[in-house]
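*** Protein under study ***
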Amino acid sequence: MRVKLPAALFAAAALGAIAVSPVAAARPTGAYQQPVVNWVQPTVVANADGTATVHVQYTCYGGNAHTHVYIGVKQGPEVNATDHTSSQYAQTFYSTNWNPDSGSNALTCNGHKVNQRFTLQPDEFFWNAADAPALSNGTAFVQVCIFDSTNTGENDLNGFAFDYSMRKVVVD
């Protein structure tokens, strides 16, 4: 009996280890991938209430904790998508800075394509904020930056996706 009991316990433990190990080693079905900005709607809508709406489709992974989205819309005759992208060239600058990462401006990082309309307001940190005109019909430079939960900061390209492009502005 003494020889059989330890052998039986060893066999049971071995079977338990075999049964558990594939589960522990299996990758989740939604394995992590870098975020992607799938598209930005060609039209930015300048709303009558002084806000603007930018419609984006994106995909990101890793959950919603510690994510960040920044969207900026810059308008002015010197703004372009190549070498005049900073706010120093803009007459008007709207962004998500007024309500970052909450409400309609919070990312959903669940590994699925997400269609989301983000709400922008005049950027209070803009150098010309006090005298900036509202967005008007025409074109604007649109920056979309998505940082997922794996991104560690400004110089980290992991967990980061962006789309920089000129878009049409339509006043609603």
